[in-house]
Design the sequence.
């Protein structure tokens, strides 16, 4: 679907794809079974594209004129950490992650 240019988003509305109604479990399932999709693309599917598909045109991104809900993740050394590794760690919960959520 992605290669065809369609908007693909991640959501939770049933227990069909995993045994919890959890966006994080949905993200992990996609990351596990579709390794060709980058962690950045998976995160976009769960945020920006999800908001777009639901008609929330001014949500899901940190852009001028948008109303973002923001998840701030504490990174020990932001100059050394690659964004893909941070997202991969977040998806897999490979380490304890400190965060704050702002609406």
Sequence:
């Amino acid at each position: 679907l992605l290669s065809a240019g369609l908007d693909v988003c991640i959501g939770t509305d049933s227990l069909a794809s995993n045994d919890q109604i959890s966006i994080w479990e949905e993200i992990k399932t996609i990351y596990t079974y579709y390794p060709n999709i980058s962690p950045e693309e998976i995160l976009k599917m769960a945020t920006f594209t999800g908001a777009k598909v639901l008609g929330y045109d001014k949500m899901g991104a940190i852009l001028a004129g948008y109303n973002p809900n923001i998840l701030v993740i504490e990174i020990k050394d932001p100059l050394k950490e690659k964004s893909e590794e941070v997202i991969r760690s977040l998806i897999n919960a490979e380490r304890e992650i400190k965060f704050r959520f702002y609406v």
About this structure: Residues 75 and 86 are 8 Å apart (CA to CA). The helical segments are 23-33, 39-46, 48-53, 83-92. The beta strands are 70-73, 99-102. The two ends are 31 Å apart (CA to CA).
